[in-house]
Specification:
Blueprint lengths: L7 H5 L1 H21 L9 H5 L9 H13 L3 H11 L12 H10 L2 H6 L6 H31 L7 H15 L13 H24 L2 H21 L8 H16 L3 H38 L17 H10 L12 H21 L17 H7 L5 H23 L6 H4 L5 H12 L2 E4 L2 E4 H20 L6
Helix pairs in contact: 2-8, 2-9, 2-20, 4-8, 5-6, 5-8, 6-8, 8-9, 8-10, 9-19, 10-11, 11-13, 12-13, 15-17, 15-19
C-alpha cells in the first residue's frame, strides 16, 4: 500500500481505504500492547485503576485492559487532571485543551455506561475517554492531511496527485508516534487541530491568489483560531505562528515597494487580519498561564507564593518543565541519555532533511546546497504535486518543522521528537513524493531506499507499543 503504486480501488475510495488501513494498524498496535508484560516495572497505573475482582461485565474488562495498558507515563497525568483537575504544581505542565476535553467526554452517559462496573470508575472513565478522543482525532487528522495534500496541488484529481495524497496520509497512520496516538496523550488531537489550521491557512492563500479578499480574511482568522486551539494541546503549536509572522513581514515589504494609497490600505488590512489571527494563537498558550498566575501568585498569600511568580516572565509551564523535568538548553546532553539520542536520530534526520529540501537556497545553510542538483520544489511543480500556493505553503511549513527538530535536539527530552513530529505534514509529503517517484532519499549525505524508512517506521512503532504498555522507555 505504501511502497508500491496505490490500487485503483484505493484511489477511487480513498477515505474508506484509509479508514480500513487505520483500523487494521490500530488493532495491531493494541494487540501488541495487550500481550506485553503486565503490570510493567512501574505500578502507578494499577494504583489508579485497580480492578474489582467481582466484575465480569465485558465492557468493564475491556475498559480495565485499555486503562491499564494505555495509561502510562504522561497519560497518568492527563487522566488524573481530566478526572479531578490540577492539584499539584507539576500537573500544570499538562493543563490545557486535551485534559479539559477528556474530562468533558468522560462525563458523558455513553462513556459512563462502558465502565459502569469498574472500581475507581472516575479515573477509568477519563482513561477510556482519552483513548476514544485520541483515536478519533488521529483518524480525522489522517483525512484532513489527505485533503490538504490535494489542496496544495494544481491537479487534485490526477492519478499521481491522488497517489501522493493517499500515501502521505498513510504515512501519518504508521507514524513512529505509534501508540502515543492511541493512548490518552495530546499528540493526535494536536495533529488534528494543527492540520485543520494548515488546511484553512492554505485555503486562505488560495483565496488571496484568486483575489477573493473577504473569504481570505475569514479563513486567516479561523485558521488562527484552529492553531490557537492546537496550542492549548501542545505548546510547540506556537511555532505555527511563524506562518502569520512571515505574511506580516511580506505585507510590510509590499507596502514599502509600492506606496500607492490602494496598496497601503490593502496591506494594512492584511496586516490587521494577520495580527488578529496571531493573537488568537497567543491566547491559546497564554490563558492557562494566566489561570496559574492567578492561583499561585495573585490569590495566594505572600508567604505561600510560588518562587516563579517573581521571574521576569512568570510562566508556570516554563518553571515546571525546568524544575521538575530538567528541560533546558543542553541539559539532556549526558552520556546516560546517549541511547535516547540514537533512537531519535532517524526522525531528527527526516525532519531536518525534508525541511531543508523545501527551503529556498537563500534560506538554507550553505552546506546543504548543491548547485548541481535541481531543487526538490521544482520536481514537485513539474509532477503537478505543488501549485504556486502549494509551493508557498511548503516553504513556510519548513521553518516551524526545522525549528522543532533543532529544539528537540538541544532543549527537549530528545526522544519525544518521534511523537511530536506527528503534528507536521511536510516530512510526510517529502517521503510520499519519493515513494511515488520510486526514488531514494538522502539522509546525512547517504542515499537510502524509502522502503527502509517505511520499514523503520513500522518496526519502531510496533516495538514502542510493547515497551509503552510495559511502562518502559522511550517515552
Amino acid at each position: 500500500m505504501l511502497v508500491g503504486s496505490s490500487s485503483k480501488w484505493q484511489l477511487d475510495n480513498p477515505r474508506t481505504s484509509l479508514t480500513i488501513f487505520f483500523v487494521i494498524w490500530k488493532l495491531l498496535l493494541l494487540l501488541i500492547a495487550c500481550t506485553s508484560p503486565y503490570p510493567g516495572y512501574d505500578t502507578s497505573t494499577t494504583l489508579l485503576v485497580a480492578h474489582r475482582p467481582d466484575c465480569e461485565h465485558v465492557t468493564d474488562i475491556v475498559s480495565q485492559v485499555l486503562a491499564n495498558k494505555l495509561t502510562r507515563w504522561d497519560a497518568i497525568y492527563f487522566a488524573n487532571i481530566g478526572h479531578r483537575g490540577a492539584i499539584f504544581e507539576q500537573e500544570w505542565a499538562f493543563v490545557g485543551g486535551y485534559a479539559k476535553m477528556v474530562g468533558i467526554v468522560s462525563r458523558s452517559p455513553d462513556v459512563k455506561d462502558i465502565v459502569l462496573f469498574a472500581a475507581h470508575a472516575g479515573v477509568v472513565e477519563t482513561a477510556v475517554a482519552g483513548t476514544l478522543v485520541s483515536n478519533i482525532a488521529h483518524l480525522l487528522s489522517v483525512l484532513v492531511l489527505y485533503q490538504t495534500s490535494k489542496l496544495i496541488s494544481p491537479k487534485p484529481s490526477s492519478h499521481e496527485t491522488q497517489s501522493f495524497a493517499f500515501i502521505a496520509a498513510s504515512l501519518h497512520i504508521i507514524s513512529p508516534a505509534g501508540l502515543f496516538l492511541s493512548a490518552p496523550y495530546a499528540e493526535s488531537s494536536f495533529s488534528f487541530l494543527n492540520f485543520v489550521g494548515f488546511y484553512l491557512y492554505t485555503s486562505s492563500l488560495q483565496a488571496h491568489h484568486d483575489g477573493r479578499l473577504g473569504p481570505r480574511d475569514i479563513l486567516v482568522i479561523v485558521s488562527g483560531l484552529a492553531l490557537g486551539l492546537a496550542t492549548t494541546f501542545r505548546s510547540n503549536g506556537l511555532l505555527s505562528g511563524l506562518l502569520f509572522c512571515f505574511d506580516i513581514v511580506k505585507s510590510i515589504f509590499t507596502i514599502r515597494e509600492d506606496v500607492q494609497s490602494k496598496t497601503i490600505l490593502l496591506g494594512l488590512r492584511r496586516i490587521i487580519i494577520l495580527v488578529i489571527a496571531g493573537l488568537l494563537m497567543a491566547v491559546g498558550s497564554a490563558f492557562p498561564q494566566y489561570l496559574a498566575y492567578q492561583e499561585y501568585c495573585v490569590d495566594a498569600k505572600p508567604e505561600h507564593q510560588a518562587s516563579w511568580c517573581t521571574h521576569r516572565v512568570p510562566s508556570i509551564y516554563a518553571w515546571v518543565q525546568s524544575h521538575y523535568w530538567n528541560v533546558g538548553l543542553f541539559r539532556y546532553w549526558t552520556l546516560s541519555n546517549a541511547p535516547l539520542f540514537l533512537l531519535a536520530t532517524p526522525m531528527l534526520l527526516i525532519l531536518i532533511a525534508s525541511a531543508l529540501k523545501f527551503l529556498p537556497p537563500s534560506e538554507r545553510p550553505s552546506s546543504a546546497i548543491d548547485s548541481t542538483k535541481p531543487l526538490p520544489i521544482n520536481e514537485f511543480r513539474e509532477r503537478g504535486w505543488l501549485s504556486p500556493v502549494g509551493v508557498d505553503v511548503a516553504r513556510r511549513l519548513a521553518v516551524p518543522q526545522l525549528i522543532l527538530a533543532l529544539l528537540a535536539l538541544t532543549n527537549y527530552h530528545v526522544q519525544i521528537v518521534t511523537r511530536i513530529s506527528s503534528g507536521y505534514p511536510l516530512w510526510c509529503w517529502w517521503l510520499a513524493s519519493r515513494i511515488v517517484a520510486r526514488d531514494f532519499i538522502e539522509l546525512a549525505g547517504c542515499k537510502i531506499s524509502v522502503k527502509v524508512v517505511v520499514m523503520w517506521m513500522v518496526i519502531y512503532a510496533c516495538l514502542q507499543a510493547g515497551l509503552f504498555a510495559a511502562f518502559l522507555p522511550p517515552a
